[in-house]
Amino acid sequence: MVGESHYENAFRALLDKNKPPWGDYWAEMDDLPAAIVADPDNPHDSSAVAVWVQEELVGFLPREAAALYHPALADLAERGEHLRVGARVLVHLDDGAVSGSATVTLPPPEGVQSYNEPPDEPHQVMPHGSAMQVTCEEQHMDVLGAYVSDRERHVAVTLHAIDVQKTPRSSPYRAVEVRLDGQRVGELTKGMSEKMLDVVDFISGKGRLPLCRAVLKGSPLRAELTLQVAKAHEVKSRWLDGIESA
Question: Cα–Cα distance between 82 and 13 in angstroms, integer?
Fold first, then answer.
């Protein structure tokens, strides 16, 4: 990001809100909620993109990055929406003067908006995480075939806890089923499901559908679906506390 030096008061406010422990030189605040917002009225750049962390303006995307992201973010703004991601904030205190920096991780510009609409039911967007492969997609090409294209397509999928028994003699177990627009398109392996079930159950217990980003690639003959979502042990307490019951 750029321009952080102009927002000393914002970084002071973030210190007051979060009261992080201090290291030798810096106070670090990780995974704070950040809003990435198109700023077409900016007098310096009509393609500017502002970054707000916990409702504090802390800076802007660099000009070249802003030019890439502004169109998709402007479309979101017309719908009264914005891109929300996690931010890492570092603050330095020197003789009473505060300086800070913020870093955000963004999806690619074409992934700012999902190809499909989110569900009408109450839902909760899950934190971003490392890639997680969905299995059994080949059994659901009747659904996935309508979504694939020549390029990667970013879609919103929901996660659901189900009971699975592979054979009549095998022991049943709980797994995570993946649905695209309400239709089953695969599931996670037993091992991966175990890493996700706690957070899926927690969100479902709040009366909300667990919603996460996924990347779809392939052809109408065969496709691969990869989730980009944090595992249960990676989810922060702050995020869990912010989920309201539907």
Answer: 22
